[in-house]
Amino acid sequence: MPRGRYSLHDLHDHTPLGEEHFHCAPGPSGWRYVSQTTSPSADHLGSLDLALDELGRPIRLELHAASWQVRGAALEGVTWVRTDPTGSYATEGNVRAHTFAGTSPAFLIATTRLLRLTPASPTTRVRVVTFTDPVLAPRTVDQSWALINSEAHATDNGPLIVDEYQVSALDTGERHTVHIAGDVVLAAPGIELEHLETPPSPRTYGPDLGGPDLGEPDTDSPAAD
Fold first, then answer.
1. Vertex 130: Cα angle to 129 and 134 (nearest 5)
2. d(CA 220, CA 80)
3. For the chain, first and last CA: distance in Å?
4. Region Disordered: which residues (predicted)?
5. Residue 209 pLDDT more than 60?
């Protein structure tokens, strides 16, 4: 069960935004990630509980930030309920998207588990609903993902496979690189792995599963670019 700590930074000026303390684990029916986020002064900022099924689809999302709350799941695309800090108002949303996204590194892992790319896979388009801090406002974004390199690194616990993804925002053309080992993000824009108590869980999906399956009834199939 990987357990550790990420530091989070502003994407533009690299101002420290806080830390995310996490643990995650694969299970017989999928994968789960739980975390708590703190400010640079160690004040509590929010929390995340994300569970995926064996195909990488979000079967439960519970996200908290600045007293705002979002609960969601894959249902006719993705569906969520967003509640204001007073608890007086709740708004429901639904988009024909494939998964959720946000500040947490967990969402990057979730997308890779959904797409199950290999270096031989074509660049794949995916639609995500991202929740922006601090009020968890939803925004629908189209991205393209490609696994451009997969390299084994020797460690005391055996080879560690590090995957290098290229992620592009299709609305702006902005492109960045994400490095992931199993179910741990090693480096990504605004994210640095500061401490890891136990090794990442190995990647358990691949071409033997027939590639990504994002079709009906829950989602529309992403198109290869």
1. 145
2. 18
3. 35
4. 195-225
5. no
Q: How many CB atoms lie within 10 A of CB 77?
A: 19
Amino acid type, 191: I
Determine the Cα–Cα distance for residues 31 and 50; give it in Å rounded to an integer: 8
Question: What is the model's pTM?
Answer: 0.89
As a whole number of angstroms, the distance between CA 167 and CA 189 comes to: 11
Side-chain-side CA neighbours of 191 within 13 Å: the count stands at 25
Task: Residue 145: name the closest of 215, 49, 214 by CA.
Answer: 214
Q: Given the structure tokens 């894959």, which residue do they identify?
A: 74
Q: What is the pLDDT of residues 102-114, one digit of tens each?
A: 999 999 999 999 9
